[in-house]
Specification:
The structure is a single chain. By secondary structure, the chain is an all-alpha fold. 78% of the residues lie in helices and 0% in strands. Helix 1 packs antiparallel against helix 4 and helix 3 runs antiparallel to helix 4. The two termini are 19 Å apart. The model has no long low-confidence stretch (mean pLDDT 88).
Length: 142
């Protein structure tokens, strides 16, 4: 496989966990976040998403380094690092709001919904950032 083919394959693989979250997460907009099972599933979705993105981006960073595209590798590495940080932050916030909801706080469900929207926006930004970088795969190495 050529370096361009390897880079294209890495880019497509990077998009898979983001596309999965992009498709799966809106279904929770129809669910009631008062239900503990629903919030457990939502938390699991966030956990899986950020873990998958961080692992796949770490592999993608290596792939772009091997393909001779160090600036693209750095950009993908930054996305991997942000995914690690975002996972800790989002799960911490979700856990805090789930405990608040279980304690009877009225605004906790609203904040859970707000976190869900933020997570979807964060994923969309990641997805479109990587998608917009696809033309760089076919140009001279950066």
């Amino acid at each position: 496989m050529t370096a361009d083919g390897f880079s294209l394959a890495a880019t497509i693989i990077l998009l898979f966990p983001m596309l999965y979250f992009f498709i799966a997460s809106p279904t929770f907009l129809l669910a009631k976040l008062e239900d503990p099972v629903v919030t457990w599933l939502l938390r699991s979705l966030f956990s899986f998403h950020f873990r998958a993105v961080s692992i796949v981006c770490a592999i993608g960073t290596i792939a772009f380094l091997v393909a001779g595209r160090p600036l693209v590798a750095i950009a993908i590495g930054i996305i991997a690092a942000l995914a690690v940080y975002a996972r800790q932050w989002f799960l911490g916030q979700l856990d805090t709001q789930i405990r608040a909801r279980d304690a009877g706080e009225a605004g906790a469900v609203r904040e859970l919904r707000r976190l869900h929207w933020r997570g979807m926006a964060y994923n969309a930004a990641q997805f479109f950032l990587i998608l917009s970088g696809v033309p760089f795969v076919f140009t001279n190495p950066l």
